[in-house]
Amino acid sequence: MANTHWTVYLSGEIHTDWRERIIHGAEAANLPFTWLTPVTNHADSDDCGAVILGEEPQAFWRDHKGAGVNAIRTRTFIEKSDVVVVRFGDKYKQWNAAFDAGYAAALGKPLITLHDPELTHALKEVDGAALATAQTPEQVLAILRYVCRGELQR
Asked: pTM for this one?
């Protein structure tokens, strides 16, 4: 599998640089990855359904439209991925990230969760479905390097 090209979906929290740290580290190590992500522009993600399909007077239906449009991308990318990484931050509840993790697990996709230790209890069921739980983007990168190349950096 050393020459295999991997597709990795990076799901979850959008308010920190965790994705960039993983991607830049993988590029520096010349790892063979294609990266897929949700729309990380918060306003665009919230507004896509109303902008594309028409405004809604009730917030529920406005959010429903946006969730559906975003789900086309999310589900397609999770299905195409070899590995799914889901980051849980501390700013929001991130139900969408939990859904992505569950969807990936239901499809049998190898799942890596990423979160601070303070969230361990709240995410115990999600972590239970993951094959690895990391606390830093650098740990995720080390996991990806190891599974891709069989290289363990000490």
From this structure: 0.94
Query: Is 59 exposed, middle or buried (CB count within 10 Å of its CB: 0-12, 13-18, 19+)?
Result: exposed
| Higher pLDDT among residues 56 and 94, named by residue | 56
Residues 93-125: tens digit of each pLDDT: 788 999 999 999 999 999 999 999 999 999 999
The candidate with the shortest Cα–Cα distance to 31, out of 10, 55, 49, 4, is: 4
The set of residues, in sequence order, having a beta carbon less than 8 Å from that of 77 and lying 6+ positions away, is: 9, 36, 37, 38
Residues 43 and 117: their CA atoms lie apart, in Å, by 29
What is the CATH architecture of 6-149?
Answer: 3-Layer(aba) Sandwich (3.40)
Per-residue pLDDT reduced to its tens digit, 80-93: 999 999 999 987 77
Structure tokens at 79: 């299905």
Domain boundaries, the chain: 6-149
